[in-house]
Queue: 2 jobs
Job 1
Amino acid sequence: MKSELLKRSVLFVLPCIAAALPWVPGSLQAHDVEGVGKLSSAEHLVAITRGGVLYDKWYGALGKEAPKTTHPAYPSAGKQKGASTWRCKECHGWDYKGARGAYHKGSHYSGIGGIRNMTHAPLDTIVATLKDKTHGLGELIPNKELMNLAHFIAHGQLDMDVYIDRASKKAKGDAANGERIFQTTCARCHGSDGKLINFKSPPKVEYIGTVATKNPWETLHKLRMGQPGVPMMSMLAFDIQDHVDVLAYTQTLPVK
Ligand code: HEC
Ligand code: HEC
């Protein structure tokens, strides 16, 4: 009798413990990437994707003129200058890890940290950070859009090292599944070999295949959120594994 009761209470308690555990990379539920996924309302997903394109290039997404100065918080030792130093990604990285991520060296190194610790942070706290002395964005970005950025930071970002091998840059995805999705969605604009849109001005060429191979973190961010200033779709309502599968497929496309 006693052991039966014990068994039952263990069976009851175990799922409760599992539900209370923090999100663990690797043991990921496809429908719950740090709070986003199939269970999120359309309204929430839209706010996150809007925040994601603002993170990419807020002045482009808002249709504003690019800032002419270098951001006061951008370190003088950094190699970038002018408008690009105002992009969130320039200081905090496409992988949201700043100097601890893919920008730990090279021409985009700034020494500034990432935004990973702000996952699940209260939206008001994030908005206050964006209005602080370091960022000074209160005058430049309307409140509603700052809120969208906060939604992205609290619920849209993720640990890209779970999905992309840092050293080889290879996506940990199933390219065959990615092909099915790419050929029925992305290919309408980008072409079946990804070469219909050239991101550079000829004679220079840069296609999806080029970007996905060179900068998989940027590609994953953009395919999940969309591209600022153009009517490109976002994949956010799909499972995260689908995002990574599409990334894996784009890494098989021609680079020139
Ligand atoms: C010119 C560089 C720069 C740009 C551009 C920039 N930030 Fe920051 N950000 C910082 C610095 C510096 C800090 C505080 C110290 C640190 O994290 O190294 C910070 C901190 C943060 C934090 C708090 C991180 C934490 O763990 O406490 C968030 C969230 C954040 N930034 C979001 C953004 C967003 C969103 C944008 C774009 C709208 C943006 N930042 C643009 C430099 C920048
Ligand atoms: C409705 C058309 C459309 C669809 C659908 C579309 N895109 Fe795009 N995409 C664009 C346009 C337009 C650009 C911007 C081109 C430019 O800036 O020169 C772009 C840019 C990109 C970029 C940015 C490259 C860079 O370095 O700036 C990536 C990555 C990308 N698309 C991936 C995808 C993927 C993956 C899909 C499918 C999930 C997709 N796109 C679906 C139109 C589309």
Job 2
Amino acid sequence: MKIAIIADTHVGYPRFYEDSFTQAEAAFRDADSKADLILFLGDLYDTRVPSLQILGRTISFFRSLKTPIYAIHGNHERRSKGTLNPVGLLEKAGAIHHLNFSSAVFEKDGEKIFIAGMGNVPDDLAKAGLRRLSETVQIPGGTFSILMLHQSVKEFVFGEELLELDDLEKLGYSLILNGHIHVRKEALDGRFLIPGSTVITQLTKEETNPRGYYLYDTKEKKHQFIQIPCRKFLFEELEFRDAKLGGVQEKVGGIFADLRKENPDAIIKIRLKGTLEKGLRTSDVILAEDGSLFIDNKLNEHIIRSDLKAIRDMREKKLSVREMSEARIRDKLKGKITLFEPSELFEALSTGPEEALKYLQEKMKAS
Ligand SMILES: [Mn+2]
């Protein structure tokens, strides 16, 4: 049996609204022509309550496909317990099957596939979620079994208390499929697959890789990635050294014009790195963005980083606000004002203005 595995279409994604539809439709349409079964791994929609326009468009699209679709919902569609989410609504409209802490058996030409699904749960509840799933869903012996998830996994995402590949492997499924992570990944010798999103959402360098879906062959136990037509995404990095404002503007403008000329429809991201000339701040660099040009200004990042480091160091040393202020005042007044001792004045000020005045008067008398 051939199974298409699609994830994170984020239909209705405001930044690239039309792309989100056309690229989702391209993936499902292609899968419909090649697969016996389509599995969808969550975040079909970008929001938990999509507009009627978006719901209407997806319902008629899904009803035009002939291949059965089993889906789970993602974090973008998760709603409170007992309320209907948009993937559940699609099931009511007869367009797909929605699995959530439940399972189904799909049969075609005498071959049986067992499919279990767990819709997204918050990261800290994911391990408990898997335990609950194991209690409610029993994997039948001798059947090819698939688990569909939409979770963060420690090997690919930074975070605490996340599921690990080890936990997942122990569950005993033949194939584990995961959404949520928008970049294509595979592990456990091809028994764990993440197809990635069909639309660009994070504008990271990794997202310049092709978009698409996996086609899995249960006989050969092999997967293949099928690329879909997708709006081009270009990621450029420009390095500067002691740059002047005009220099940055000119260079960015020039590169952008060249890229745009070659790629009229592309999404373009330009990252600025390096240093500005003395006296300029990162925020002085103002460059116009638009719906398809994005600027990631990391100029003078080392200075920002060292400022942050200084703050962190101070925190680590557990200097109180008062100690920091005293140290600062002492530093600024060094050699200029010798009338008072900063820590003593600070002490007097924190008691009250009269005390501070009294302290200063005494110091003046003494000098
Ligand atoms: Mn997502």
